[in-house]
Amino acid sequence: MIRLRNLPDLIGALLCIGLGFIVSGEAYRLQSYSGSTYVGDHTLPFILAIVFIALGAALLFQSFRSRKAEGEAAAEDPESAAGNSERSRLIFCFVTLFLYVWLLDWLGYVLATLLTSLVLFRLIGFYRWLTSLFFSIVLTGCLYAVFIVWLQITFSSGSLFD
Amino acid sequence: MDTIQLLMDGFSSALTLENLLMAAVGALVGTFVGVLPGLGPTSAIAILLPLTGVLEPTQGIIMLAGIYYGAMYGGSTTAILLNIPGELSSVPTCLDGYPLAKKGKGGPALGISALASFGAGVLGVIGLVFFAPILADQALKFGPPEYFALMLLALTLMVSLSGGSLIKSFLMGAFGYTLALVGLGPSSGMPRFDYGVSQLMGGFDMISIIIGLFAVTEVLKGIEERRAGAVIAKTGSVYPGKEDLKKSAAPMLRGGLVGFFLGLLPGCSAAITAFLAYDLEKKVSRQPEKFGNGAIEGVAAPEAANNATSSAGFIPLFSLGIPSSPPLAILLAGLMIYGLTPGPVLFEQHAPFVWTVIASMFVGNAMLLVLNLPMVWVWVKLTRVPYGIMAPIILMFCTIGAYSVRNSMFDVLVAFLFGGLGYLFHKYKWPVVPLVLCFILGPMLEESFIHTMAMGAGDISIVWSRPISLVLLIAAAALLVISILLNRRTNQRVKEERERGMDVA
Questions:
Q1: Distance between CA atoms of B327 and B336, rounded to whole angstroms?
Q2: CA-nearest residue of chain A to B55?
Q3: Which residues on chain A are in Cβ contact (under 8 Å) with B427?
Q4: How many CA atoms lie within 13 A of B22 on its CB side?
Q5: Structure pTM?
Q6: InterPro entries given for it (chain A) (predicted)?
Q7: Which residue, A95, B46, B136, B340, is the most exposed by fewest CB within 10 angstroms?
């Protein structure tokens, strides 16, 4: 019996096919700016669109396989399923990083780094808040001394303080 | 004779106080990052690449080369003492290195590993001195069709580097090329794939993508795996005795030669040569049963092989612009950031730079030996730094690195976004190396393709009607077959080691 082997490959294949259509749309738009039908800024996007759609379809086909092959693939796959706590911690870290980008613009480099590193030390290292605060102060201070004072990299001072 | 003279000039420049300092800092920082469990040469260079941006090109590349060698060396420390192979190429070192460490002979194993790395590294650089200019000289005859064929060769290399699913490799390569297309089109000057977002008109910054895919991803993987300090085996004195040196001399030489000559083949990674050297040593040994139980030859041969391959990889990198391993792909990005496009004209247009960097590799290898042997205890202590402290520090470095190239917050956002994507790619086995390589080579491929088509008046057959490009196409096909066969063999060996219980990355 042929059935779906893995959902991630299926999703990946569909995304690739979708990307192929997006790229081909852009190739079509760019063709109007080119003097030649075959050579111009649109040529490579057009080839890539074909690659995405053709190979995406092949992967889509491959994401279905026989039960026997499915069992073998599962046995070969050493990927450990991360626990829920690890996964949520990972998501929190990821969200923190995006918040950091926003905070950098709003609070400026020093405060944003202090806050973000405090949260990261707590999240990743499981340190107590006080210990995390200590680590984050040391880290922010060192980064400030090296990159802003010594190497003179100019970071945003924050729109809040402008 | 000219080559020797140029090398001597290179030495006179490399031995200036500033450049020596850069080589030393690079070697130390590289070793430092390399010994941290989970961080290999690729992520080490990715994290530190933007930070060298404040230096002059020569100094920056000297430091990057030092970081590369240092991280390779550092990887063997974790392989021997912790049984953690940071990179696939360190797996054979673990096989006998860790049993030696458990017997209290970790020190001599580290010493032999350092000596083997030094010897093979020097052998590789000697090869670079003689082979690279000859290859570059030939490549000067290249026109657009030859360059296009060369890019196709790089494409086949991309497949062999990734080792996993062929379809996924090609799709990731296509994704990399697509990312490279974002920005202004080379022939019309019209924006492509910008969708009205002004930041996208300048295209994606290479560094942000590299930092995201290698450094941020590495940290996210570490968080998921809950990396913690490992139990460190005993070291003892790091200076190997006469008996160990005698046993290791021939394996070092054989491993170095295997590593160097196979390393000349683009796509033949250090992991392949390290395994081949290890298996060869086991075959020629009078006591093959000792292997896997703490044979010093089992450390000397693969360490020599992987370092010789790493050095040999600079030959196609400098002379053709083709990186043969992921760390060299990042190094290629580094060269391009400094406005130095590796390839045939590099030797012609930037001779002092190239020869200074080559000379500094000799210096860097010697420094690694001199600095690291007496400092092994420092590195051993470093492996105990908790991941909970290292991870936030690395993430903060990543932010600064991504930001500092163009002073753009958008690049930081891109780095984090690709960090997340890289994590998903890793989790679902989509290889990232083809993406990076195609992103780097994308503009060159497009340029050579447009020129080729213009030369052939729209007829692509010009590519296989010229002798050099035809040879390159045949070489690409042959390399593809060889690489697939060698990769299959290496994957089989890795699978065997996994089945024996080794935690292979």
A1: 14
A2: A151
A3: 8, 79
A4: 26
A5: 0.77
A6: DUF1468
A7: A95
